[in-house]
Amino acid sequence: MGFFQRLVRAVKAQFNALLKRIEDPEKLLDQLLLDMNKQLLEAKRSVAQALADEKRLEKRVSEYAAQVDDWEQKAVTALKAGREDLAKQALVKKAELLEVLEQYRKSHEEQHATVEKLKASLRDLQDRIEDARRKRNILIARAKRVQAQKRLQETIKGLSDTSAFAAFEELEKRVEELEAEAEATEALEVEDTTLSLEEQIRKLEKPEDKADVLLEDLKKRLGLPHDSSGS
């Protein structure tokens, strides 16, 4: 697995862990950006190390290329001096160095290709982090909106509980009963006051004598004059 694949997995793992642990979206995004920047620094160090390795290989290529050219010149010098034996030895040395040079050239080409890939991945990572930084406020607003909707749904769900409505209806019924009791008590008090007033007035009236009433009734029946005043 390449370095940047491990980096992406690490960021995703940290994101999932933070998502479960942090409810504040702003704090979550800030922490994610901080972690991304840390990973970016690590990626930059890796690219720098790879680039340094490429430079060292490039230097070895130059060094061995120079040695190959040097032994080539030594072989020419020996040959011109009539020393074929020395010229042969110089060419053998040149051939040995040329093999090493080709190995270094191959390693350098492979390292150069690796560095270019790492640079491209690093640029892509930087672009993504910049994009995430630009989207931070938008994501915070969206996350808060989702949280508000969730809280509203939970509130509505809580209000949908039948026990709460039953308690509300029971309280309403009890209040109506208390109101009815209060009205009945008030009516009884008014009635008691009215009866008491009538009794008091009746006591003030002069009671009629039963004998006088009977006498007047008899006179009436006999056609005799009677006292119209009742006395």
Descriptive overview:
The chain has 2 domains: 3-160; 162-207. It is built from 5 helices and no strands. The protein has helices at 3-21, 25-80, 84-159, 162-204, 210-222. The protein is mostly helical and 231 residues long.
Largest sheet: none
Q: How many beta-strand segments? A: 0
What low-confidence regions span 5 or more consecutive residues with pLDDT below 50? none
Cα distance spanning the termini? 134 Å
- Give me the number of helical elements: 5
Oligomer: single chain
Helix content: over 70%
Mean pLDDT: 79
Q: What radius of gyration results from the CA coordinates?
A: 57 Å
Integer tally of domains? 2
Strand content: under 5%
Order of helices and strands: HHHHH
Shape: rod-shaped
The structure class reads mainly alpha
Give the topology.
Elements lengths: L2 H19 L3 H56 L3 H76 L2 H43 L5 H13 L9
Quick summary:
Helix content is 90%, strand content 0%.
